[in-house]
Design goal:
Layout: H1 10-14, H2 19-35, H3 51-58, E1 67-72, E2 108-111, E3 117-119, E4 124-132, E5 137-143, E6 148-158, E7 165-166, E8 171-175, H4 180-184, E9 192-199, E10 202-204, H5 243-251, H6 256-263, H7 269-282, E11 318-321
Parallel strand pairs: 1-11
Antiparallel strand pairs: 1-2, 2-9, 3-8, 4-5, 4-7, 5-6, 6-8, 6-9, 9-10
Helix pairs in contact: 5-7
Length: 331
């Protein structure tokens, strides 16, 4: 019998979809490299080369203790506020005050072998499947209600479709090494999932400092795991959006490709909003201004959405910090 899931092709693994895509991306690299907008590296970037993490993962090895190494944490100095696709490490600080991050890093990176099932971190509805090789390749987004969206980036293959409800722990994609950053530094940068939590259009850190109370925390404080997340959970309604603000923000977009992508989603407001939020943060150059705020989502959402580890429970039970080797746990 044929396999239910065909094996990944090399092109899927690295997110190379077509010659046209490659040529378009190369033009963008040249244009924005000349302008100094993106792709900034320096001597500090060498700290991101981690062969002790990358080589075992590329060989398909899962840690015997079931703890996924965390390659980078959310940058508390600029993550979620600015984005320039820099990979320098001049000002970054993670939630612990350490340097397990790089400047403006806006998520949490979990190292995992190619083809690892990536799972929904909470019940929700799939609202985004976006493929931009210059920003991590294939990305799947899930709306969990209360203005919360999670993203799973560097995917090789999506296993879901827009509008599909998913339960916590249900596979949404297979991990890959997609995107310019992983391809450019192969095999010294480990294959990983870039996991993002968004609250009302802004990336946030699910890890908490002492005294903090996040709207999108891990299900157990500072512990990405599957513990305490079993059993049936109600499926949340997708987060409400303001269609007038969606239209206003789309009209203001000056990049024809991005604008066409947004206009094609006008009949699916939840997908329109999630894609627009992603573009406003990661493709700010598609708008002529730097500081204009769009109120895409009402401000009345107050519920807390608790997240579990976005890696399959068949292989992973938790995570550990890639710099110290200590398990990420409550505290």
């Amino acid at each position: 019998m044929p396999s239910a899931t065909p094996p990944l092709r090399l092109s899927e693994t690295f997110g190379i979809r077509s010659p046209r895509q490659v040529l378009g991306d190369l033009r963008e690299i040249v244009r924005d490299g000349i302008r100094g907008r993106r792709f900034q590296v320096g001597l500090s970037s060498a700290g991101l080369l981690k062969p002790r993490l990358s080589l075992p993962a590329y060989l398909g090895r899962v840690p015997a203790d079931g703890l996924a190494p965390i390659y980078n944490l959310f940058d508390r100095t600029g993550g979620g506020t600015f984005y320039s696709q820099r990979v320098s490490r001049a000002r970054c600080r993670d939630f612990r005050g350490g340097r397990l991050a790089y400047d403006e890093h806006d998520g949490v990176d979990f190292v995992c072998p190619i083809g690892t099932p990536l799972v929904a971190a909470a019940p929700g509805v799939v609202v985004m499947i976006r493929d931009r090789w210059l920003r991590g390749g294939l990305t799947v987004g899930v709306d969990h209600g209360a203005g919360v969206v999670t993203q799973y980036t560097h995917c090789a293959r999506s296993l879901v479709s827009i509008g599909q409800p998913v339960q916590r722990g249900e596979a949404v994609a297979l991990s890959g090494a997609a995107g310019i950053d992983l391809v450019q530094f192969f095999p010294w940068v480990p294959p990983h999932i870039h996991f993002m939590a968004w609250h009302r259009g802004r990336p946030v850190d699910p890890f908490e400092r002492p005294g903090e109370s996040s709207k999108v925390p891990w299900s157990r404080r500072n512990t990405p795991s599957h513990e305490g997340t079993t059993g049936a959970e109600p499926m949340p309604a997708v987060s409400p959006v303001d269609p007038r603000e969606l239209e206003r923000a789309t009209r203001a977009c000056v990049d024809p490709r991005v604008r066409r992508e947004l206009e094609a989603l006008a009949d699916v407001p939840a997908a329109w909003a999630a894609t627009l939020e992603d573009a406003l943060h990661h493709q700010r150059e598609a708008w002529e201004f730097r500081e204009t705020t769009f109120a895409l989502r009402p401000s009345t959402e107050t519920a807390t959405v608790r997240l579990s580890l976005p890696l399959t429970a068949d292989a992973y039970r938790g995570a550990r910090f890639g710099d110290t080797g200590a398990a990420a746990r409550e505290g």
